[in-house]
Amino acid sequence: MKQYFVLGLLFFISCSPKIKPVEAVKNDLSGTWKVITVNGLTVVKKDAGNEMPFLTFNATTNTVTGTTGCNRINGNATISLSSINFGPLATTKMMCLNAQYERPILQSLIGNLSYTYEQGLITISKEGRTIMTLAK
How crowded is residue 110: how many other Cβ atoms within 10 Å of its Cβ? Predict the structure, then answer.
């Protein structure tokens, strides 16, 4: 009986999903990500300002750069296995017509946020509510 239990346990362990180490997840997030949605709104070019908003994460230096569609962003972003902690962000101060995503993006990138990373999509949440989705 013990042999069957041990064999079953080994089978279960070998078939369970493999969890990536934190460093592997951090490296997966490094790179440039397009902002697809913010606060439930789908981001479209005509309402974005000068260009489509994006964020570029560097997990080695714990930094983020990018654009809101109008103004440039840079600052700290410390990535762990399930959260991103955004430090103070610096932005340029240009004025753009139709830059309707700037304020929601900047308000979303405050503090310690949770995220999931699945199939090339980052979903950033705050208090259980999706506030932004990003895609490569």
Answer: 12
SS3 76: strand
Instruction: Report how many domains make up the chain.
Output: 1
- For the stretch 53-100, pLDDT in tens is 999 999 889 999 999 999 999 999 999 889 999 999 999 999 888 899
Q: State residue 24's pLDDT score.
A: 46
* CATH code, domain with 65: 2.40.128.270
Determine the length of the chain: 136
Residue with tokens 């009986």: 1
Give the largest CA-CA distance in the chain. Answer: 74
Number of H helices and E strands in the chain, helices first, is 3, 9
Q: Which domain holds residue 69?
A: 22-135
